Amino acid sequence: MLVKTYGSAIYGIDAYLITIEVNIDKGAGYHLVGLPDNAIRESSHRINTALNNAGYKVPRKKIIINMAPADVRKEGSAYDLTIAMGILAASEQIKADNIGSYIIMGELSLDGSLLPIKGVLPIAIQARKDGFKGIILPQENAKEAAVVNNLEVYAAENISQVIDFFEKKKELKLVEFNTREKFYESLQNFPFDFADVKGQENVKRALEIAAAGGHNILLIGPPGSGKTMLAKRISSILPPLTLHEALETTKIHSVAGKLSKNSALMTHRPFTSPHHTTSDVALVGGGSYPQPGEISLAHNGVLFLDELPEFQRSVLEVMRQPLEDREVTIARAKFTVTYPASFMLVASMNPSPSGFFPDDPQNTSSPAEMQRYMNKISGPLLDRIDLHIEVTPVPFEHLSAERNGEKSEVIRARVTKARKLQEIRFQDLGHVHYNAQMGPKQLDDFCQLGTDSIELIKNAMEKLNLSARAYDRILRVARTIADLDKQQSIATHHLAEAIQYRSLDREGFLR
Question: Where are the alpha helices (DSSP H) in 318-467?
Fold first, then answer.
């Protein structure tokens, strides 16, 4: 007898339908075809033992299982339950007339219990798109799938419950999740707040500008000056996620298996901070079976690179293309996968190898050593960072002051207003949403300068020896400062403030 059950596979951050065709006929042998990987080939042992422990068996007949489309490689253990239910239905051990109305996925343990799988959210989205009535998943995954409306999501603890459901002996638990209500409930809860930061008003101003325009930023200062503390609080002043952004971000984390067990939907912008020993594959994604890297996990959020010069130069250089294109493409011989990577880069570094330039009492770093240290970061990468900010140690009188700094929610309100101005400005441009994404055409249209401003930027270009890309960055930052000031045009003082945020371009920075 031939029976078809349905599962799903992940390609990039989207899913596509996999049809499991199970045919049982006279003869002997167990044949699994359709380009399965080792984890799927090993499923026969898990399925056999799990069915025995549940009171069923794999028939001693000729079993042919085809995973269609047969020319696309399948991977992972998520098809155990799909195949097992197909075998039971094809061997007529159970009666499951409506088995084709559901996507069925889950990894089987030897005792028949179900283990969680990756990529449930895109699978559920695709199931609804393909017109399935519902989806049956391990209990740990059901809440995540329930984010998708107009789809019945059933949670099962073991294969016996799934069998009873199709034989109409007992109902499975139907999981429901009020996506909008839960999403808006959690929007304002942040673990860090700028009110905790004392002093550093100039740095907080720069971070506010960076958040308002989506600009990349580099913090330069000695150990203990507060670089990491400030960076961790940037997410709290970024505009709240929209529901669309939340779903897109959750899909990426779901595919990577990074979604918290207690979280069905991400409500805060992600903040990722890879260690400086990370590899280029871990950062941008890849592998034999490509997975999203740290820059994709930071999509719609913040990627923080602490101690930037300590990263391998090859690792940093692979970020250049994603910083420009806001996506990363991983090419293999037989396929190409594209992951979104629209993140705000926040990096920090010491001003010298000793960490205390120019206030190093022992003068432990020679000019040559300092130059080598700075040369670890290439010019093209620095050009892609809009703001370079010096972070100085906080004076004692600021540390001992009782008054707290401005709260994140107050700063976030100003940032959100500036972003709304940008949304209105770019509403007819599908690929541009905020100032940091502006191209040459948008710079010409929205960053027009007066005579005094042109003279100012001309002098800055000549004295600081700025590149053409640095010139564009200054205009983008000046546009954001004007937006925070609620001004339609860029004034000279907006441009002057933007120029001062290019510390590493200043001649004599290392002197």
Answer: 320-325, 367-375, 379-383, 396-399, 408-425, 440-446, 451-464
Assess whether pLDDT exceeds 50 at residue 36. Answer: yes
Backbone phi and psi for residue 113, each to the nearest 5 degrees, phi listed first = -75, 160
Which of 262-266, 275-279, 361-365, 426-430 has the highest mean predicted lDDT (pLDDT)? 275-279
- Kindly list the distances between the CA atom of residue 389 and the CA atoms of 210, 376, 379, 401, 471, in Å, as whole numbers in the listed order: 11, 18, 16, 24, 17
Lowest model confidence (mean pLDDT) among 130-134, 180-184, 388-392: 180-184
Q: How far apart are CA 257 and CA 192, in angstroms?
A: 25
Q: Identify whether the C-beta of residue 257 lies closer than 8 Å to the C-beta of residue 118.
A: yes
The closest of 297, 374, 290 to 335, measured between CA atoms, is 290
Q: What backbone torsions phi and psi does residue 170 show, to the nearest 5 degrees?
A: -155, 140
Query: By the 8 A CB rule, do 110 and 53 touch?
Result: yes
Judged on CB neighbours under 10 Å (0-12, 13-18, 19+), 299 is buried
Q: How far is CA 279 from CA 284, 287, 293, 484, 507, in A?
A: 9, 11, 10, 38, 33
How is residue 406 annotated by DSSP? Answer: -
Amino acid, single-letter form, for residue 407: K
Residue 332 has pLDDT above 90, yes or no: no
**What percent of the chain lies above the pLDDT cut of 70?**
93
Q: Where does residue 492 rank: exposed (0-12), middle (13-18), buried (19+ CB within 10 A)?
A: middle
Predicted confidence (pLDDT) at residue 508 exceeds the cutoff of 50: no
* Sheet strand arrangement including 217-220: 271-272, 302-305, 344-349, 217-220, 387-390
Which pTM value belongs to this model? 0.86
**For 88, how many CA atoms within 13 A lie in the half-sphere containing its CB?**
27
What whole-number distance in Å separates Cα of residue 328 and Cα of residue 294? 11
Q: Check residue 325 and give its pLDDT.
A: 87
Residue-wise burial string across 189-203, b where 16 or more C-beta atoms lie within 10 A, e elsewhere: ebebbbbebbbbeeb
CA distances from 12 to 285, 329, 390, 503, 507 (A): 11, 10, 39, 38, 44
Side-chain half-sphere CA neighbours of 121 within 13 A: 25
Q: CA 326 from chain center: how many Å?
A: 12
The whole-number average pLDDT for the span 170-187 is 81
**Nearest CA among 128, 164, 338 for reference residue 252:** 338
Q: Are strands 134-138 and 102-104 parallel, antiparallel or unpaired?
A: parallel
So what's the pLDDT on residue 402?
A: 67
What residue type is 503 in one-letter code? S
Instruction: Round to whole Å and give the CA distance between 268 and 58.
Output: 46
DSSP output for 30-89: EEEESSB-HHHHTHHHHHHHHHHHTT----SSEEEEEEESTTS-B-SSTTHHHHHHHHHH
Contact 69, 3 (CB under 8 A): no
